[in-house]
Amino acid sequence: MRFGGIDVGSLTAQAVILENGSILGYKSIRVKTNPVASAEAVMGELLAELALSPGELTFTVSTGYGREQVQDTGLSQANVSEITCHGVGAHWLMPEVRTVIDIGGQDAKVIRMSPSGELEDFVMNDKCAAGTGRFLEVMARTLGLSLEELGTVSRQARKRAALSSRCGIFCETEVLRFLQRGADRADIAAGVNRAMAERVAALVRRVGAEPEVTMSGGVAKNPGVKEELERILGLRIRHCPVDPQIVGALGAAVLAKRMGGGS
Predict the structure, then answer these.
(1) What are the distances in angstroms from CA 198 to CA 64, 165, 195, 201?
(2) What domains, with CATH codes, occur in the chain?
(3) Overall pTM surpassing 0.70 (yes/no)
């Protein structure tokens, strides 16, 4: 039997299909005009790549923005919160993980799991862009870098720029001032990643990090943020063994397997 998971975020949408307890395939795309269109596109592309039809999925779970709408249109048979799905997905990949730091496009979440994979506690920040992927996108654009370059370029820094503001809008103004003064882009990029890590570290402290720790979401691909978090928190963050952006959709597929009669 095959089971599907669909995760529609603010910037990207992911789909995962499980077969016989393994990942058969996954897909990630930029979001479309609405959650339903995003879900249709990402799962449609994945099914096409695997030469499958929608009817060959036994059960599908949706998560993320508009997950109820996705279920209402028949693209999924159930919907589950992204907090639960990221926790379940991370635990399925790494059963020893107890803390999951998920940084999405418009929010950041820290999830603490029990040894059996049950949600114990969580905290999230969706009030300010400064601790989200959107913040990094804006800062990268201001620096004339791609989002992917922001992490790698920051590793070339010789003296990290000190960004005093914790507000995304004011931080952008600070970045522009550094550029006008002729500061090195690598130094500014390192300062941006540090500012991001400090916001997320505050969330981690609120929920209490327990080893092992991993990251999910697109920002997990930024080595600069990951390394700054490790320095601030004084702990090692485990590398996700798959694309960290698919962890939510993977968790949804794992839950689909449970709900749909899979062992």
Answers:
(1) 25, 11, 5, 5
(2) 1-94+241-263 (3.30.420.40), 96-240 (3.30.420.40)
(3) yes
